Amino acid sequence: MKRIAILVSICLSATPVFSQTKKDITANEVIDRIKGNLGVPWKTPTVDTFKAGDPNAKVTGIATTMMATLDVLQRAAAKGDNLIITHEPTWYDHQDTTDQLPMKDDDPVVKEKRAFIEKNHLIIWRFHDHWHRNTRDGILDGQVHAMGWEKYQDPSNSHLFTIPEKTVGQIADELQKKLGIAVMRVVGDRKMKVTRVALSPGATGFRLESGALEIPGVQLLISGESREWETVEYVADAAAQGRQKALIMLSHVPSEQFGMDECAKWLRTFVTEVPVDFIPTKDPFAPETFPSHK
Amino acid sequence: MKRIAILVSICLSATPVFSQTKKDITANEVIDRIKGNLGVPWKTPTVDTFKAGDPNAKVTGIATTMMATLDVLQRAAAKGDNLIITHEPTWYDHQDTTDQLPMKDDDPVVKEKRAFIEKNHLIIWRFHDHWHRNTRDGILDGQVHAMGWEKYQDPSNSHLFTIPEKTVGQIADELQKKLGIAVMRVVGDRKMKVTRVALSPGATGFRLESGALEIPGVQLLISGESREWETVEYVADAAAQGRQKALIMLSHVPSEQFGMDECAKWLRTFVTEVPVDFIPTKDPFAPETFPSHK
Fold it and tell me: Could you tell me the pTM of the whole model?
């Protein structure tokens, strides 16, 4: 009883002390601190800009995420996080304009998402280019860590790995389980044994993906989202030629997601005023992402 | 015995008669005849051009296909077809240049494919833009026929359908079976009941896809290949808002494949000198496409 009383007393006194040392910080100040902590200079033009909200508003909490879907924003708001740092777009477009939508800003999905952002005083900032091009690519590091592949990574090229021999099918199954992926797509011979792998998360395009596949000895490329008339056809042809080449497409979200967990960990080392949460973006192809809403 | 003898005699006499009436036709002449039989004027610039081979060479047989993969070329050559009419690229790029590949024309996969084409005197011509923009979109018509959805098609908009009520999941399962698709991807509530569907085969992009989804009453978009940070995120948000919107992605090849069967049927109505075959492109995500090659 006495010990409980002491504990309660410590807890009660601890709370005000924390509040007293806690200082206000604005979204702009958080971003300035990010720029100051990066190992590379800030480079414009960049998509790493504010996408919604008031940059001068006080931050109550930070949520890092792969993609600022409405579901992520809802979960961030419920946690009390008002600054969302997202790797991928908010407005369904790399430049985050609504120009591609025929109804543009009057599109009902856009309008309702914007209304939710405004009602909850959310601030959205994108962290794409510079998180990739930091001294170490933060997205790649987070993914490699989630895969448990650090020990296989090439010292001279962080996108290349020499793994213990496994078949393409085994690697696909293991990664699907480990990264929690709903739908995997594999091109090539699933029974092919592989030791040399290139990892290219996200949607890096055929130029980079074919560059990885052209490296002699690389047997397997793991990508996020590749075009079916480019990389997919190329690997299909390579496999038809009997070459030791295969492709695993993880889907975009789970291929980069863990890089934003890495980002949250990094932010916590220099933003201490407010909590920093990593909010995973749900896999859009998982049935449980969209339960029956009648 | 007598009847068999007569039959044999007819068959023997039929062959030379066929050969005698058969006239030579060059690839260029086939393409000119295609241009003359289209219901729309020829418009340049277009990707509908020769991609390999000699346009003045004599055609021994025509193979229409969705994508001129090496596997398709091998099957065409084995049939004696030397003119391949493909809907999608040969060289892994919409413009069919090898500029995206770091090694360009020296890429080993490109070189070996080109060597196969040359050795077998194949001629490759792309039929993309004008087959889509013909009086009726030939790709769409072929797909709708394969799906058995002609009776549900809107008279005023051939991309819209009013189907008997089914859930998104039921539609996905039925199409997967009917079109022989290895990997289907669904975004949204699979239990949602649907009657109003938009069909946008291939990779038409977010502008057209969001336009279809903005149409009031359209509950389901069926596409081939959509970008995960564009259409996929948009539908995820719409579903999270409780809207009656869902997306089924069929994959690119099976979403347009049957339009090239339609093309073969159309060609046979005005090219009678040589056989016209439809050679299905194998689904790159089906394990049986790439049996173990040791």
Answer: 0.92
Which B positions 260-279 lie with beta carbon below 8 A of chain A? none
pLDDT at residue number B293: 61
Q: Which of B22, B96, B63, B26 is nearest to B280 (CA)?
A: B63
Best mutation target among A103, A223, A234 (most B Cβ atoms within 10 Å) is A234
End-to-end CA distance of chain B: 51
* ipTM given for this complex: 0.93
Please name every residue paired with B187 in a beta bridge, in sequence order, or none if there are none. Answer: B247
* Rounded CA separation B31/B53 (Å): 14
DSSP code, position B189: -
Could you tell me the two tokens for A58?
A: 């006080």
In this predicted structure, what is the pLDDT of residue B100? Answer: 98
Could you give the C-alpha distances from A104 to A108, A124, B183, in angstroms and in order? Answer: 9, 19, 32
Does residue B114 sit at the A interface (CB-CB below 8 Å)? no
Give the separation between CA A265 and CA A276, rounded to whole angstroms. Answer: 8
Contact A63, A122 (CB under 8 A): no
Confirm or reject contact between B183 and chain A (CB < 8 A).
yes
In whole angstroms, give the CA distance from residue A158 to residue A165.
19
Task: Give me the count of residues in chain A.
Answer: 294
Q: Is A259 helix (H, G, I), strand (E, B) or coil?
A: helix
Instruction: Tell me the H-state helices in chain B.
Output: 2-21, 27-37, 70-79, 108-119, 129-132, 138-147, 168-179, 206-214, 231-240, 252-256, 258-267
Closest CA to B79 of B96, B65, B98, B99: B65
Residue B63 has pLDDT above 60, yes or no: yes
All residues of chain B having their beta carbon less than 8 Å from the beta carbon of residue A228 are 203, 224-225, 251-253, 284
Residues facing B27 on adjacent strands: none
Closest to B243 in 3D by CA, of B214, B276, B200? B214
Segment A92-126, tens digit of pLDDT: 999 999 999 999 999 999 999 999 999 999 999 99
Token pair recorded at residue A5: 């009383």
Cα separation of B229 and A269, whole Å? 30
Distance CA B251, CA B286 (A): 11
Instruction: Please name every residue paired with B186 in a beta bridge, in sequence order, or none if there are none.
Output: B248
What are the residues whose beta carbons fall under 8 Å from the beta carbon of B238, sequence distance 6 or more? A109, B188, B213, B245
CA distance linking residue B294 with residue B292, whole number of Å: 6
d(CA A124, CA A51): 5
Contacts of A132 (CB under 8 A, 6+ apart): A138, A139, A140
